[in-house]
Amino acid sequence: MLVTIPDLLSAAELAEVHALLDQGEFIDGRLSAGTEARRVKHNEELRQAPDLYQRLNHIVMNRLVRHPLYRLACLPLRVAAPFYARYRPGMTYGYHVDDPVMGGEERYRSDVSTTVFLTDPSDYEGGELSVRTTFGLQRIKLPAGQAVVYPSSSLHRVEPVRSGERRVAVTWAQSMVRDPGQRALLFELGQIRERLLAEQPELEETGRLSNVYANLVRMWADI
Predict the structure, then answer these.
(1) Which DSSP string do the residues of 126-188 spell out, in sequence order?
(2) Residue 55: per-residue pLDDT
(3) pLDDT at position 131, please?
(4) Given CA atoms 173, 17, 5, 167 in this order, what sign does their dihedral have?
(5) Is 18 helix (H, G, I), strand (E, B) or coil?
(6) What is the C-alpha separation between 188 and 51, in angstroms, rounded?
(7) How far apart are CA 213 and CA 190, in angstroms?
(8) Could you tell me the residue range of the domain that residue 98 belongs to?
(9) pTM (2 decimals)?
């Protein structure tokens, strides 16, 4: 399941994010990669200077974890601090699946990956996020300020950047619902539930559907 989150960050917030990134130091992205990913990873990531990193997360992550579409699609139990990455000409990240278990002292299972696009497609050539799904290869290149959510188990890559600079924030979450198929069903059902609660809360069917959704979460949640 791929879910696009539109209008996550405003133009003013994006400008502030870029100003902060311009102050930071970018280092070899392979330093944060696992053994397998290190072979195919060629990008740069922001060194995590505490004050700068906190200010960035206050903008990006606050908006992400509070977004209703993110919460509905992800059903997050734990959300990781992000990496802020940049891709300049020639840089890429070959096909890989994300590490199943991440973190340092606080370990978490990576169920859901999220890429927040920070630069507009017109600012760089190439650099699409390519994700292999049951419906074929999906190439994603969203406007700045939008995000895409996809299963961490998906085989995916970042296509080589041919010109310009691609900037993104990437984060992972352990979902309350481990199975991606169950999450997809709950996402569809949850969207219908939210619409009915907003538009026809008095209907008996609205209450019955809401109860079904709640009880499916109760049945499948792992906390």
Answers:
(1) E--EEEEETTEEEEE-PPTT-EEEEETTS-EEEPPEEEE-EEEEEEEEEESS--HHHHHHHHH
(2) 97
(3) 97
(4) negative
(5) helix
(6) 39
(7) 7
(8) 3-175
(9) 0.94
